[in-house]
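Bug #77: duplicate submission created two jobs. Keeping one. Sequence:
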Amino acid sequence: MPKERAIRTPALLLTLSLILFASSAAHAQWGSLTGKFVVKGMTPPPLRLKVDKDVEVCGKKPIFAETLLVGPNGELKNVAVWITPARGKSAPEPHPNYLQLANVPINVDNLACVYTPHMEVIWTKRPVHFRNQDPIAHNFSVTGFNTTFNVLVPPDGAHVQTFEKEEKSPIPAACTIHPWMKAQLLVRDSPYAAASDDNGAFTIADLPAGKWEFSFWHEAGGYLKNLKIGDEKTDRKGVCEITIEPGKMTDLGQIVIDAGDLK
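Kept job's structure:
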């Protein structure tokens, strides 16, 4: 019996080593991308919007435009970043971590007569719940090249929408009852997309290692041309090639955008 155990032990250790090696090798095939957008120069303060419908609900506090939101140190919110396959090619297959998100709903709310969030990233594998959280009716009017709808949603109601095809760039959402209510939806077939947060930062996790092209877009500037990304620059379509390092977080650092490019 001791001799049998002695024979089995090296075999077991070898098996465990192979499993750990395979796991490490698999991890090394993926990497992540992060960066922070900062505006250089002066930008105008957000415009206070005219609220002239259902004032008893919508006019309880001032509502400001969210087209251009810049933090105290220039942090730029709502820059959309997404992987852009070369012409005629498909986006890479997603990491297994993303597959568990398929069919998990994304929420886009009308709350206090404002779209929340103002910029939403949508993967076509996930349904979107357009929810009205106000005591008055709103309509969700979305105008895309591949998907267009206009749905009236009663108080505390919701509309469930699936997007079958991606859109080339972010598409507008609005409430035509309350015309100051606007948002942007980035609809992609791939989960490899993000929007910068209040700190101007974004992260796209678990990307396949290698060279990939990414698009950069902002509501106030459209496709961000001539944007310095590391040692490269975006082209006239706001696209730049970035190398994703295997097993690492590729940090682009501060990405500076001239205020004059955000009009």
